[in-house]
Amino acid sequence: MTTGRLRYLAYLSEDPDMMADFYIRHLELEELGRSNEGDVSLTDGFYNITFLKARMELGEPDNTIGLHHVGLQVDDMDRVITKYLDRAPRGEVIEEGGGLHFGEVRIYDPECRAVSLSTGDFGVGGETLRHPRLAHIAYNAIDPTLVLEFYSELFGFRELGTSFERRRDNRKNRFAGDGFTNLAIHPYYNGSAEGHEQRFGVNHIGFLVNDIEQKLENFAKETETAPRPAARPYAEYRVRDPEGNGVDLSKTKGWEIGLGKWENAA
To answer: Which domains are delineated in the chain?
Structure first.
């Protein structure tokens, strides 16, 4: 049983207003609120998607612009922190600002990528699963199996059928699910794979959309759109937001969000 669910996604952005406008217009996200520092938080009804205004005051170890880190709603914060420190006795547990734009505390995965935690729903105010909705988050990792074990042992994520297939093929890609989101963990050094992009950490995201043709027509007026490789099990297209982040779109292929549990928007 999962004890944590992905409910938060943070970007570092040079222009959060521009980014928020893009996602509202194209993917029908709704605004949750803004900070005096320029941060903007949106929602698809389930996720808090926050564009943090890049600034030194955030104190981030990594100030790369773009997709930055994820956050989980957890059932028992003390239990998660205890398990985390059992795994990593010198692991950092950092208090965050809370509210709409941050979690309550932050820990780090085995490859030093931030993970925000909250016992609440990151200010979303409920759970509405609709389309478009964020259903896929992909990482590039040096050791995908190590990152998979982190999410499985701390939060009860299930390894998925598509992951077991890759194990049988002696490939390093791993996939996990919390029942709502597909978490892909790809090897960073995977240059021979068609469509692979070497961006360490959170690499791209994916939305389920039920009007993909209209979405593509609208996206094409202002950004790059391209079909995904046919051999890929997930997503039909990829587009780019104004700061270059990859956004996959799927209607019929969908994503495996639990073991043997697939969701699409057809």
So the answer is: 4-118 (3.10.180.10), 133-263 (3.10.180.10)
